[in-house]
Amino acid sequence: MDLMGRGQPILIMAAAIIGIVLGDVTPLGAAPSTAVEIFLMMLLFVLFLSVDLRKVSGSFANIRFTGAALAINFLFTPVLAYLLGIIFFPDSVDIRIGLLMLLVTPCTDWYIVFTGMSKGNVELGLSILPLNLILQIVLMPVYLLVFIGDGADMHTASLLVDMAVVLAVPLAASLIFKRAFGTHERIWNALSEKGDHLQLLFLCLAVAVMFASEGDTLMDNPAMLLELFIPLLIFFTVLLAVAQAIGRGLGFPRRDIVSLNFTTLARNSPLALAIAVATFPDSPLISLALVIGPLIELPVLSLISAALLKWNTKEGPKTSDGCP
Question: Any keyword Transport (predicted)?
């Protein structure tokens, strides 16, 4: 992980502080939610450029790994997220929605970095990326309806339309871009090298604009970072233990268990934030929870990565042919 990667939590926090200051002294404080949405859609455009959706079938090359990852990500995790929301935020539907949206979206980028840092099976982790992306988009409205339902001011038709717009536009743009510049090797080399930096840039811009327009909400909820710390710490601890137990129970090599750990631990906060801004523009606490999430998540994942690296290399690197 390069310097920008290691400093992502600091950069996000700096963007938030800059946004609050600009919101007080410039007209940016009156920026509409669509301004945040534009930057997030640009982020998603860069993200979709890096994902080859044609490789979804590759997820099934290792049936046991794919089955374990999908069961944890899309069956166990939503229930755990719902329980944490009910236990810690029984009186705040908005924070429960934000927490749920954060925790039911598996990461599509940073988890590969942490897998590599821990000497895990990167190729195996990459194989499930397209399937994770498709399922989290399809299942997001289902989770909101099942676990939140009438508890929020949410209309199913509007939710689906807003999600379709914020996701379909960058997806369509990425497909057009790939078709137009698919043979330009220099462009793709540059995107491969700087893609994560571009995603971070657009995320920071979105955070700055959001905090500029919602600075009052943050000032009214200064303890929210601390309030989210304990449930998120419980989430990562439980998921780490569950993935370790399942991986060992299925007889996975250590490299594969590390990959399973990060495939199920890391979360896709930019995607969730883009959906939240589009579908809940009048509920700033939801977006605030999704911005605060990575400030806690990334340092925790860094500590877990160091621990898994030590465990994974304790008796020498383990190998796997990636077959069932």
Answer: yes
44 inside domain? yes
CATH at 171: 1.20.1530.20
Q: Which two tokens stand for residue 12?
A: 């996000």
Range of the domain at 302: 33-312
- Tell me whether residue 304 is in a domain: yes
pTM of the shown model: 0.74
Structural domain contains residue 172:
yes
DSSP 55-80: GGGGGGGSHHHHHHHHHIIIIIHHHH
Distance CA 15, CA 18 (A): 5
Tell me whether residue 146 is in a domain.
yes
Nearest to 253 by CA among 69, 114, 65: 65
Two tokens, residue 203: 């995320």
Q: Give the type of residue at 208.
A: A
**66-70, 136-140, 156-160, 185-189: range with highest mean pLDDT:** 66-70
Cα angle for residues 228, 298, 257 (degrees, 5° grid): 110
Q: Is the separation of the CB atoms in 266 and 304 below 8 Å?
A: no
10 Å Cβ neighbour count for 307?
Answer: 12
Supply 125's token pair.
């982790």
Closest CA to 273 of 97, 10, 51: 97
Give pLDDT, residue 264: 96
Residues 6+ apart with CB under 8 A from 65: 124, 128, 252, 256, 259, 260
Q: Which residue in the block uniquely carries the two structure tokens 């946004």?
A: 19
